[in-house]
């Protein structure tokens, strides 16, 4: 207790720091302090000695506390006392443990002397009658000695544990300070090297006039840089890698007037002349002029009027931890979830939502250069993540055999079909045909893990895109999505990793890096950067932007090698023309925050339509009930559908066992509209569209569709 506490204690309290501890006989203890005395009785001498040992340890601790309080009662201000308490606390605790060891040592010495005297008396015995009593006394002394020794050993163990834990803490703090100092030194060094590299690049760039000696006169944009390691611990984003094994680079926006006058002196890093970049009729120039509400093709019919809102999301409370605590480490698709965690769209509809910025591919068809076309494909691959920035709810897991069509052939020029082709693991096949000159197909398997604080979603599978006229075949894969603050705090989503887009005809490549969020990063959040290069590895365009807002493309007019970074990688300085915006996110509809943050396209995905297949996601009853705000009924319906699917799976498993016993082959589930083939480009087994769906829709012949709802 502190001095202030001792002045306001309850009646009958004894201050141990000034108390006297004594023993009357083998079982009684006398505890006195001034005019107050307590007589305590133990059941045995062993128990009495345990109490005496504990009281003496407590007395020693009380004396140390009193001395420490008197030592600390200086002229310091209260604020300074609280600042030093965190530092002095561990030291006082360690000193206290050392004092405990000293007290135990004194007790061992005292009991050891008593034991020694008893042994001496035993040796001087002559009468056998006295030997039994003395031997008993020796045994009791030995017992007391053992108890005190155990107390000392326990105190030693506590001291060691405390010392080790604080040693690790101090070591981490020291290491953190060292790393911070090293980072600061490296940052200053890198800034100095960047400055020198930019000066050399500006002085050494061919075709630049004398006005280029000043960086401020040639650099109209900011220096874009980052580091090459895509990890959550990377808190320095000074440079980024153009490709996985490529050197880091810096981009400087050059004055296009100088390059227009001296185009013949360019290094040839880009196709054509740099002045082509400024042509008003170029594909790049018109890349940001259309929107979801506009039609750019004369052969398309006027748009059908579609819904622009859905019922507002109800405000239901839910004990999240009571559901999540039994889900840690499990596959997300195997966790029974109420619809409270969902949004009223299925995974098939979310997959179709990637086509919201399909006009990027329509523009890519018009590109004469494969590297220009790659820029639009890269922007399209990034645009598919723009809808996820506020969409923290989980889409419905499709039932096996569930389909979803989006027929916009007359309005937007494309038609899309998705089918759930596997349930464990969940896999969806997707096929899109556009009469404007491109076809896209993919089979995506979702691997997800709940880790307590965050949820990782890893889409597995390749996305294929082929342009009809040129035959350019692009392949890429999605990055990892992470949902943070699952249990406590506001949910937020981050995308991290790298996307490598490869044109398997021309061998052009684009390596995009999604920089993970870091509290200490000086970059804009959700940053995406990359470089488009040809088959020879020559860089043509620099891609930059964010996955939730826009992507820009800058044409490279000159490149030069800069200094070597601290990791031993050589940085490349790219001089580029002014960036062109290839893609910009559409604004969300009014009241989107109450409609699950759905985009304009997402609001129409679950709109009822006629003539769709009976397995279409629009007809799923639990999803429709949730969209209408009837969540309790939706939960009941969801359980019914899942149990119905389990019954079908059990029947299929029984048929497989029966076929095995009879020595027959069992094919298992066969997709309705897709078939598995080995992809000629990647060599992977993938589900591709085999045809027949749109013909069945025209005839309204859905006899092959199972009853899944």
UniProtKB/TrEMBL annotation:
Transmembrane stretches, by residue range?
none
Alphabetized Pfam families for the sequence: Oxysterol_BP
What GO cellular component entries does it have? cytosol; perinuclear endoplasmic reticulum; plasma membrane
Gene3D superfamilies tied to this protein: 2.40.160.120, Pleckstrin-homology domain (PH domain)/Phosphotyrosine-binding domain (PTB)
Write one Gene Ontology MF term: cholesterol binding
Could you tell me which residue ranges the PH domain spans? 1-60
Keyword annotations of the record: Coiled coil, Lipid transport, Lipid-binding, Membrane, Phosphoprotein, Transport
Localization: Membrane
- Ranges of Low complexity composition bias in the record: 285-295
Q: Which InterPro entries match?
A: OSBP_sf, Oxysterol-bd, Oxysterol-bd_CS, PH-like_dom_sf, PH_domain
Membrane topology qualifier:
Peripheral membrane protein
Q: Which intervals carry biased composition (Polar residues)?
A: 210-225
Family annotation (PROSITE patterns):
OSBP, PH_DOMAIN
GO biological process terms, semicolon-separated: lipid transport
Coiled-coil ranges per UniProt = 174-201
Give me the ranges of the annotated region Disordered.
64-89, 203-237, 254-309
Q: Which SUPFAM superfamilies match?
A: Oxysterol-binding protein-like, PH domain-like
On the tree of life, the source organism's domain of life is Eukaryota
Similarity comment text for this entry: Belongs to the OSBP family.
Q: What is this protein called?
A: Oxysterol-binding protein
What is the scientific name of the source organism? Panurus biarmicus (Bearded tit)
């Amino acid at each position: 207790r502190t001095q202030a506490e001792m002045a306001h204690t309850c009646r009958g309290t004894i201050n141990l720091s000034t108390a006297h501890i004594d023993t009357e006989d083998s079982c009684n203890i006398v505890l006195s302090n001034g005019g107050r005395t307590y007589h305590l009785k133990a059941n045995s001498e062993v128990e009495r000695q345990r109490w005496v040992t504990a009281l003496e340890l407590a007395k020693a601790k009380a004396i140390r506390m009193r001395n420490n309080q008197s030592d600390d009662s200086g002229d310091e201000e209260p604020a300074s006392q609280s600042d030093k308490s965190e530092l002095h606390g561990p030291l006082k605790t360690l000193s206290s443990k050392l004092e405990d060891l000293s007290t135990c040592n004194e007790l061992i010495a005292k009991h050891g002397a008593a034991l020694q005297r008893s042994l001496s008396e035993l040796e001087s015995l002559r009468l056998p009658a006295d030997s039994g009593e003395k031997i008993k006394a020796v045994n009791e002394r030995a017992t007391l000695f053992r108890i005190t020794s155990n107390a000392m050993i326990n105190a030693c163990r506590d001291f060691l544990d405390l010392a080790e834990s604080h040693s690790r803490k101090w070591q981490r703090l020291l290491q953190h300070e060292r790393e911070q100092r090293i980072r600061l030194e490296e940052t200053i060094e890198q800034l100095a090297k960047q400055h020198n590299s930019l000066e050399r690049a500006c002085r050494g760039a061919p075709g630049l006039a004398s006005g280029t000696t000043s960086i401020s006169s040639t650099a109209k944009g900011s220096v874009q840089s980052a580091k090459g390691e895509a990890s959550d611990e990377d808190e320095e984003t000074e440079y980024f890698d153009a490709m996985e094994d490529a050197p880091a680079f810096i981009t400087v926006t050059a004055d296009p007037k100088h390059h227009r006058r001296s185009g013949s002196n360019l290094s040839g890093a880009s196709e054509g002349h740099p002045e082509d970049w400024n042509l008003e009729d170029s594909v790049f120039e018109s890349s940001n002029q259309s929107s979801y509400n506009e039609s750019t093709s004369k052969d398309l019919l006027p748009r059908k009027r579609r819904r622009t809102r859905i019922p507002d999301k109800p405000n239901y409370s839910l004990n999240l931890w009571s559901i999540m605590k039994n889900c840690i480490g499990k596959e997300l698709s195997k966790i029974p979830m109420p619809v409270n965690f969902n949004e009223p769209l299925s995974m098939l509809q979310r997959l179709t939502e990637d086509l919201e910025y399909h006009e990027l591919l329509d523009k890519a068809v018009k590109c004469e250069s494969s590297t220009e076309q790659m820029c639009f494909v890269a922007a399209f691959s990034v645009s598919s993540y723009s809808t996820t920035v506020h969409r923290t709810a989980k889409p419905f897991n499709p039932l096996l055999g569930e389909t979803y069509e989006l027929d916009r052939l007359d309005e937007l020029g494309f038609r899309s079909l998705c089918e759930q082709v596997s349930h464990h693991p969940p896999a969806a096949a997707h096929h899109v045909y556009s009469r404007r000159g491109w076809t896209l197909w993919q089979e995506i398997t979702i691997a997800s893990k709940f880790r307590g604080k965050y949820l990782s979603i890893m889409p597995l599978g390749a996305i294929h895109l082929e342009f009809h006229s040129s035959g350019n075949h692009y392949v890429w894969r999605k990055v990892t999505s992470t949902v943070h603050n699952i249990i406590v705090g506001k949910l937020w989503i981050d995308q991290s990793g790298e996307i490598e887009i490869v044109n398997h005809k021309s061998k052009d490549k684009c390596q995009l890096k999604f920089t993970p969020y870091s509290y200490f990063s000086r970059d804009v959040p959700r940053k995406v950067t990359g470089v488009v290069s040809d088959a020879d590895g020559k860089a043509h365009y620099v891609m930059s932007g964010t996955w939730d807002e826009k992507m820009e493309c800058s044409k490279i007019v000159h490149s030069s090698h800069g200094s070597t970074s601290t990791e031993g990688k050589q940085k490349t300085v790219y001089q580029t023309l002014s960036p062109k915006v290839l893609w910009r996110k559409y604004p969300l509809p009014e009241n989107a925050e109450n409609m699950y943050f759905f985009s304009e396209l997402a609001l129409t995905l679950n709109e009822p339509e006629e003539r769709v297949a009976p397995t279409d996601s629009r007809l799923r009853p639990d999803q429709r009930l949730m969209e209408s705000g009837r969540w309790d009924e939706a939960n009941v319906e969801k359980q019914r559908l899942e149990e119905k699917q389990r019954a079908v799976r059990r029947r299929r498993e029984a048929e497989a066992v029966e076929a095995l016993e009879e020595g027959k082959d069992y094919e298992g589930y066969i997709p309705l509209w897709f078939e598995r083939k080995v992809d000629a480009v990647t060599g992977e087994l993938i589900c591709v569209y085999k045809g027949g769906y749109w013909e069945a829709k025209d005839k309204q012949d859905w006899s092959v569709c199972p009853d899944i709802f």
